[in-house]
Design brief:
Two copies of one chain form a homodimer.
Chain A: H1 15-30, H2 37-43, H3 48-54, H4 58-83, H5 88-104, H6 110-118, H7 123-150, H8 159-177, H9 190-205
Helix pairs in contact in A: 1-2, 1-4, 1-6, 2-3, 4-5, 4-7, 5-7, 5-8, 7-8
Chain A binds a DNA duplex (30 and 30 nucleotides) through helix 3.
DNA sequence: TATATATTACTGACCGGTCAGTTATATATA
DNA sequence: TATATATAACTGACCGGTCAGTAATATATA
């Protein structure tokens, strides 16, 4: 039985997903500007020309990576909110832990660092991310806070003013993981971090410090 | 009176500081990799060759920027700690506000974003920053926490575990300022942010929620 | 079923432009 | 005038995007 000697196959359906997967890995490893399209194509097992059959430009490729990796997670968070009628602190805890499972542990967690890193040089990407991801994520947390304030579980505060502050330690941890961690600069163990974070934050939010 | 027609002056003493100042501005605007040495030299009013008379490489230039901009501030924080014997929460507040005056408002505030952004591509820079700045800053905050715990003002907790969490909102705010803010993606007003941050954090740290 | 023809997914060399670092040369100053 | 200081032309490597051509596959025809 002779080995089939084809140099390549036609796989129109599978290519885009394979390309965005390779692109995600490399963008996270090296950043947007520093990643070469040749390398993305090579990792996906095609040539650079092929990449341009499926995506108009480097920026469009990046947007596709975001859409594929983060929008489903946001939808999941919104569903979680709708399906958990209990105390706001439990909902908050659930969303945070689920978020960490996907963003904290998976490769998509490299995206926030990349956005902050490259926003100024690629403002169109920044706007896209702000509109599609950040705004929507903030709305979710604000809704959680409102529920807690309305029920008297949380002290009265301005949810808009606290969103950034409250989620900062999560974003910072995932940024750290994909930057200084990679250079051997260590951080506190994850379990301790999340436990202490939830403790500190909920103590700060609650009306009565149970 | 004829216009002095000298094409350039010898200014051995002044050059280094002028070059690091120009470099800081441009590194913050564009990032480390994306900043061209030609442009730094031009902004400092010299040629690129001149730059190489004072700094061995782009990385050495960057280290000089860090040393000049951040090490004095760390020393100041340590002095503040020694000179304020009162409650830990007041000391914490004073250090945070002073930090924001310099890092939050000045151009040096662009450095943290830059470090996280480029750490993976320039690990030597990351190590330098981790050793010279991050470690020393953490030691300062840990000392403040210890004072509060020992005096009974703060609840008992592991200072090491909480440093990252507590300072995250400050770092995130300064990262945001130098990335998404520049693309028109706004944030809560600064005064509100700092007030709510101190309120939330001190509520989370204190033994009694006064 | 076998072969000719048409279609299209894919390749890889190439181009214009960029930039860190080098070096040959010019000039200000002691 | 000697030389430290500064310039600017130069090198070589790199990279996003293009496109003429090639090879795999679909379809028509006998």
């Amino acid at each position: 039985m002779p080995v089939t000697k084809t140099r390549w196959k036609r796989r129109k359906e599978a290519r885009p997903q394979e390309l965005t997967a390779a692109a995600l890995e490399l963008f996270v490893e090296k950043g947007f500007a520093a990643t070469r399209l040749d390398e993305i194509a090579a990792r996906a097992g095609v040539s650079k020309g092929t990449l341009y059959l499926y995506f108009d430009s480097k920026e469009e490729l990046f947007k596709a990576v975001i859409r594929e990796g983060l929008l489903p997670l946001l939808a999941e968070g919104e569903e979680l909110m709708a399906s958990m009628p209990g105390p706001a602190s439990e909902l908050f805890r659930a969303i945070v832990l689920r978020w960490w499972e996907i963003v904290g542990e998976g490769p998509i967690g490299g995206i926030p660092k990349l956005i902050f890193a490259e926003a100024r040089n690629f403002p169109e990407i920044a706007r896209f991310y702000a509109d599609e991801v950040i705004e929507r994520g903030k709305r979710l947390f604000v809704a959680v806070f409102r529920r807690g304030i309305d029920s008297g579980e949380f002290r009265p505060f301005d949810p808009q003013a606290l969103v950034h502050i409250v989620i900062s330690p999560l974003i910072m941890r995932v940024i750290w993981k994909h930057s200084l961690d990679c250079c051997g600069v260590t951080n506190v163990p994850l379990d301790d971090y999340l436990r202490e974070y939830l403790e500190l934050t909920l103590r700060g939010l609650r009306r009565d410090p149970t």
